[in-house]
Amino acid sequence: MAMHRLNLLPTAVGLLSMVAVGCGSSGGDAFDTLPPIRTTTSTTTTTTTVDDRRRFYEVKPGDNLAEIARSFEVPKSEIVRINRLPNNGEIIQIGQILEIPTDVVLVEELPTPESTTSTEAP
After folding, report:
1. Which of 3, 16, 32, 112 has an alpha carbon within 20 to 30 A of 101's alpha carbon?
2. How far, in Å, are 25, 83, 95, 101 from residue 60 at the CA level?
């Protein structure tokens, strides 16, 4: 039985040699035989843009909200709403910063319908 074990030993050494040779004889040869590893990365980007349409006004001595609203052509009620002013904006302070709404248009007159003229052929 000892003789049988000796015969298996050279076979096992041969198999180990074949496995080592399959990957290359040096560490650099493995790069030539292995497929490249593909990786995927993803990134998420959020963009914050400053709304350059926002307008602000600093209250000056003698100002009142109706005058400010008229100057910017916006309804007084919208200035009150956007700034959360108490008492319908009757009390404002000198130096107070008011945001002036930009997406509201004050229409003082109703548009007139386009007049239709007809011409008759002679």
Report:
1. 112
2. 86, 17, 6, 19
Instruction: Of 108, 51, 78, 84, give the one whose Cα is nearest residue 68.
Output: 78
Q: Count structural domains, the chain.
A: 1
Render pLDDT for 29-84 as a digit per residue (tens, 0 to 9): 655 677 778 888 888 777 766 556 789 999 999 999 999 999 999 999 999 999 99
Structure tokens at 84: 């959360």
Q: Where are the beta strands (DSSP E) in the chain?
A: 55-58, 97-100
CB 56 within 8 A of CB 96: no
**Whole domain around residue 87: which residue ranges?**
55-100
Task: Classify residue 88: in a domain, yes or no.
Answer: yes
